[in-house]
Amino acid sequence: MPEELCPVLWIGRVAVATLPAEVDLTNADPVRDELLSVVSQGAALLVADLSMTTFCDSTGVSALVRTLRQASAHEAVLRLVVNTPSVQRVLSITGVDRQLEVFPSVSAALAAPYDQVGGGPAG
User: Fold this and answer.
1) 24 near 56, Cβ under 8 Å?
2) In sequence order, what are the residues at sequence separation of 6 or more whose Cβ sits closer than 8 angstroms to the Cβ of residue 33?
3) How many CB atoms sit inside 10 A of residue 84's CB?
4) Does residue 55 contact residue 24 with C-beta atoms inside 8 Å?
5) 23 bridge partner residues
6) Do residues 88 and 97 touch, judged by C-beta distance below 8 A?
7) Which domains does the chain have, with CATH numbers?
8) 72 closest CA partner among 115, 39, 119
9) Other C-beta atoms within 10 Å of 121: how many?
């Protein structure tokens, strides 16, 4: 069996998926498929950890947006962990940073409250 492109750590119904160093045309579809698989396995919260990702092109952004749509359909929350300027920039240019919750670290993404039923931040 091939090694996962995005290793996932499960903590109850919370999943933290670590994305590769680059998410681009060469691997965006498999990344998307692995993230969608996590959502379909019943994650209430999916944290996509891009803290080690240094490059993300439009196909990578599209994979994240499709994952967001699927997560919303499953009443799950998708959060991103981004701390590299190049990835922050592409998310800002595309407006994805206004559609998703973006955190500077996995611990911050896990610590923020969320509404499991409504699929959004608790409030």
Assistant:
1) yes
2) none
3) 16
4) yes
5) 56
6) yes
7) 8-111 (3.30.750.24)
8) 119
9) 12
Q: How many Å apart are CA 46 and CA 41, to the nearest integer?
A: 11
The pTM is what? 0.90
Contacts of 87 (CB under 8 A, 6+ apart): 50, 53, 54, 55, 56
User: CA of 45: how far to CAs of 24, 32, 35, in Å?
Assistant: 24, 16, 12
Handedness of CA 97, 99, 103, 106 (dihedral sign): negative
User: What are the tens digits of pLDDT across the range 56-115?
Assistant: 999 999 999 999 999 999 999 999 999 999 999 999 999 999 999 999 999 999 999 876
pLDDT score of 69: 96
- Of 96, 100, 85, 27, the closest CA to residue 54 belongs to 85
